[in-house]
């Protein structure tokens, strides 16, 4: 039992590092490792994944919010769309075959991976003009980049597209029971043209809010096993703290180059699920 807990802890540290670095919840690593490597029941693995999302967000939030990399205004504004989408997804779950949804969203992610690949060497968005709605809601921001050694001021565009994509991300989360962090980062990077660091940091903040709202449901259902969730939470918290230190000292292009293969992997996994392979 001690050895198992130690393995879970080590896996969770890795998940925390990647989660905080890329704006994902860590479930992309935690769930496959727990189920395939340790034979944990999928429902307890998903429960542990929810805990890992909260731990990733908590571990990363302190640094990202302090350094003003997280855009709280954008996060809370987009959370409206995500929450509404999640409620919609939960409501229509069972009415639509998940097989087709996996294929549709798998193709969407694959297309996004190719789009990101084209701009893999773009350190900061160029020629971005803020939309009137972005100015009205004061969504623009700035942060100090330790790598570039200067203050980065950024504008925000594609607010409508970003809001729409966040709604879709919420629907996916509610329908398929998967984390939508990868869609959040993609929407902010591709549609709203935010710097990659702002996209991942703001996604980290948002997934924590969403997961905290759903954690109670999993707890009541008995899907959170303390023997599994405990080491996961501790490991992810350690990993997320390490991940924030790594991220603030990395170039945006490097983060994007790590993110693209993860995006491609998730899209292929979704397509295979949809095709029943």
UniProtKB/TrEMBL annotation:
Organism for this UniProt entry: Thermoanaerobacterium butyriciformans
InterPro entries: TM_pro_TauE-like, TSUP
Organism lineage: Bacteria, Bacillati, Bacillota, Clostridia, Thermoanaerobacterales
Membrane topology: Multi-pass membrane protein
Compartmental location: Cell membrane
Segments crossing the lipid bilayer: 7-38, 44-65, 163-183, 203-221, 228-248
Keyword check for Transmembrane: yes
Family classification: Belongs to the 4-toluene sulfonate uptake permease (TSUP) (TC 2.A.102) family.
Chief localisation class: membrane
Any single Pfam family the record assigns to this protein: TauE
Domain of life: Bacteria
UniProt keywords, alphabetically: Cell membrane, Membrane, Transmembrane, Transmembrane helix, Transport
Keyword Acetylation among record annotations: no
Protein name (Swiss-Prot/TrEMBL): Probable membrane transporter protein
């Amino acid at each position: 039992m001690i050895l198992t807990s130690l393995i879970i802890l080590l896996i969770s540290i890795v998940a925390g590092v990647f989660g905080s670095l890329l704006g994902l919840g860590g479930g992309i690593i935690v769930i496959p490792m727990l189920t395939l490597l340790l034979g944990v029941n999928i429902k307890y693995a998903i429960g542990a994944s929810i805990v890992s999302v909260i731990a990733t967000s908590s571990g990363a939030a302190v640094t990202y919010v302090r350094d003003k990399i997280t855009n709280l205004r954008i996060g809370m504004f987009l959370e409206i769309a995500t929450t509404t989408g999640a409620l919609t997804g939960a409501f229509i779950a069972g009415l639509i075959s998940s097989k087709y949804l996996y294929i549709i969203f798998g193709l969407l992610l694959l297309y996004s991976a190719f789009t990101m690949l084209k701009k893999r060497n773009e350190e900061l968005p160029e020629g971005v003009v803020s939309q009137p709605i972005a100015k009205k809601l004061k969504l623009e921001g700035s942060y100090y980049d330790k790598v570039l050694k200067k203050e980065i001021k950024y504008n925000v565009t594609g607010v409508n597209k970003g809001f729409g994509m966040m709604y879709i991300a919420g629907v996916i989360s509610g329908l398929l029971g998967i984390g939508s962090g990868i869609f959040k980062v993609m929407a902010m990077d591709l549609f709203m043209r935010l710097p990659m660091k702002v996209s991942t940091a703001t996604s980290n903040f948002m997934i924590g809010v969403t997961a905290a709202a759903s954690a109670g449901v999993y707890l009541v259902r008995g899907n959170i096993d303390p023997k599994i969730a405990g080491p996961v939470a501790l490991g992810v918290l350690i990993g997320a703290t390490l991940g924030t230190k790594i991220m603030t000292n990395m170039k945006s292009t490097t983060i994007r180059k790590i993110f693209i293969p993860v995006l491609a992997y998730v899209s292929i996994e979704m397509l295979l699920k949809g095709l029943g392979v």
